[in-house]
Design a protein that fits this description.
By secondary structure, the protein is of the alpha/beta class. 39% of the residues lie in helices and 16% in strands. Strand 1 (53-57) and strand 2 (62-66) form a beta hairpin.
Length: 335
Amino acid sequence: METVEPYVAPLSDVARSFTDLTGVPVDLPSALFLRARLAALEHPGRTSANGSCHLLRAADGWTAVNLARPDDLAAVPALLALLGSPGEPGGLHTAVQRVPAAEVAEAAQLLGIPAAVPGSVTRDARPAVRTERWGERRVRAMADLRIVDFSALWAGPLCARLLGLAGARVVKVESTTRPDGARLGTPAFYQWLHDGHDNGVVEFVPGAMDELVAEADVVIEASRPRALRRLGLRAEEFLAARPGRVWVGITGYGRENDRIAFGDDAAVSGGLTGVDPNGDPVFLGDALADPVTGVFAAHAAARSLAEGGGELLCISMAACAATLADAPARVRPPC
């Protein structure tokens, strides 16, 4: 079974570039493996390390379905119905065997369940980071910057952690009704991600976050743009209002795509999987697309700030995973 090591060369390059920009070394082993080590997670196989995402054999290949939230589990009967197997005694594992992989993923996504076909996002299909300029440039010292982090779980908070280590002041903002789900995990890992950050709790309703955003130099978020617009938050207006600002938007597949993704299914979509002795896919590491995306996002933000900012950074988790996925092939010696 493959390990993560053959795939990390592109990530190491990004981490070194972040260090060149900020002077802050990136501890990649901790970024990639600390959560699994602290939680004593088992090595993944066809089921992810945290137990929520499953690689299922479909009629023509494989698909990954991630039942990470109570709502995802509650939607399984509806998914079985869409797949033409209501009340299937064998559950999803049996039902998907009669359906093409892409149709399984599409049916799950219609119900809001994160799902993916291995390798459906390639390195050449879209960049890991897409940059849009909406504001004027102004270079400022990292120590003078205030970062407001609306993200949760892993990728966005890791980006905020690295920028905080570089000297920026970080304010983590949570909803009064939906706190960061990572709080339900290992406390030591949550503390590692957010050490030294201020914390704010607000009601996520229109206008409630206006003051926080007005004071920010950098915003980190991992929400769909339409959800943010309902709250009155628009990246383009934020960037145009003051020179030198940066907006970091982390999504599964790009800001133009409403598909939901978490670290394990996004890694599968990007082809960042190993193979078992039979050549079939298995999960690599623990939700790898999350920490990989966090490092890519921190580097993109540091690069933008060093050049004066004014940019919207659109970061796709699946595309970040795809950047690493073909690393073994690129370094393999010729026959």
